[in-house]
Amino acid sequence: MGSKKKKLVSGITLAIACAFIWYGAARGEIAVVLNKAVNICLECIGLG
Amino acid sequence: MGLKVSVKRKLFQVIAFGYSNVHLLNFKGGKIYEGKWKQFCNPGLNCYSCPAASLACPIGALQAVSGSMNFQFSFYVVGFLLAAGVLLGRFVCGWLCPFGLLQELMHKIPALKFKLKKGFLYIKYVILVVFVLTLPVAATNYMGMGKPAFCQYICPAGMLEGGIPLLLTHQELRQTIGSLFYLKTAVLIVTLGGCVLVYRFFCRTMCPLGAIYGLMNKISLYHLEIDKNQCVNCGKCAKVCKMEVDPVKKPDSPECIRCGACAESCPKGAICMGFTRSSSERFIHKLSE
Ligand code: SF4
Ligand code: SF4
Ligand code: SF4
To answer: B32: which DSSP letter?
Structure first.
């Protein structure tokens, strides 16, 4: 990939990434992540 | 004169291990940290069920959201992974991932060392597609909830960082041990043994996070560049690469963890690593030495 094209693809991907984070946060995904992460995950520790 | 890149990398790895695992005192009581920082993902693999963990594991979080009742896909976590991938690519693996550091330490144990057959490198993509992306969404119960299949059947980081310390401190958890526990213990033993024999065995064969970042090496802003005018094709860089990459032929290889060993070894200073060419570091060996 040429350097200019690569920069363009990187820039677009970064913009999409920011939009995704914003949209995911806006529709309440952060609460699901937090809830999973603050409780012992039985699957992780081999019991679930 | 700056620090050698290998020393700098070790410092970064230790600091990243530290900020990922701030709550060391939790090991004593077998509790996990329950604060707000856990809404943010760690760029590297570090189990959120580890008593010391301060952030959320992105692979666990991805499966948790897509397997939840209300969502089938996590924009939040995918957005985070895309951002980390496009900015850093597998620099995360080489410099920031706690489980990567653990594997490097395991590999220091004296034993016979082996190279990896190329076919094994593709297993991690299959694991990513089947266990991380598909099963949590497809294998759901009557309420539409799926389980995090990678955590449940494979992830050795979860067993090592969460399973062992929590089971040692909780008798009630020990009483529920069943076949899944034995399966995951077997995976953990194979992984740890593999890491002793093969450099970063888990990263190269099994890690879905490494698979994602590897694919993004092609477009990541932090990158590796070869100055073709300086390179004399001596092959020293490929020889020192423990990930078995030839950076001259494939500077954007999905296996390159941007460790900088090749750049450090190049007698011509032909390998640069950085965000832009002008800001990239050039590691020049003094030929006069
Ligand atoms: S079990 Fe593995 S993938 Fe799952 S949350 Fe823990 S570290 Fe992440
Ligand atoms: S491949 Fe996975 S475990 Fe290895 S360093 Fe990268 S994120 Fe960490
Ligand atoms: S190609 Fe260079 S930077 Fe990449 S993994 Fe190999 S030695 Fe490290």
So the answer is: -
Evaluate whether A47 touches A40 at the Cβ level (below 8 Å): no
Protein residue with least CA distance to atom 4, ligand 2: B203
Q: Do A41 and B76 touch (CB under 8 A)?
A: no
Where do the domains of chain B lie?
A: 5-216, 223-288
The length of chain A in residues reads 48
Tokens linked to B77: 């976590």
* pLDDT tens-place string over residues B162-219: 999 999 999 999 999 999 999 999 999 999 999 999 999 999 999 999 999 999 999 9
Give the ipTM.
0.96
Q: For the segment B7-29, what is each residue's pLDDT rounded down to a tens digit? A: 999 999 999 999 999 999 999 99
Mutate to test the pocket of ligand 2, among B42, B62, B97 (most ligand atoms within 8 A of CB): B97
Q: Which domain holds residue A10?
A: 3-44
Residues of chain A found within 8 Å of residue B57, distances taken between Cβ atoms: 37
Distance CA B84, CA B81 (A): 5
Over range B55-80, report the average pLDDT.
97
Please state which of the four CATH numbers 1.20.1280, 3.30.70, 1.10.4030, 3.30.1360 is assigned to the domain occupying B223-288: 3.30.70
Number of other CB atoms surrounding residue A26 within 10 Å: 11
Chain A residue with Cα closest to B181: A46
In the stretch 222-281 of chain B, residues with CB closer than 8 A to chain A read none
Number of structural domains chain A divides into? 1
| Lookup result for tokens 């593999």 | B194
Q: With an 8 Å Cβ cutoff, is B163 touching chain A?
A: yes
Q: Measuring from atom 7 of ligand 1, which residue has the nearest CA?
A: B47
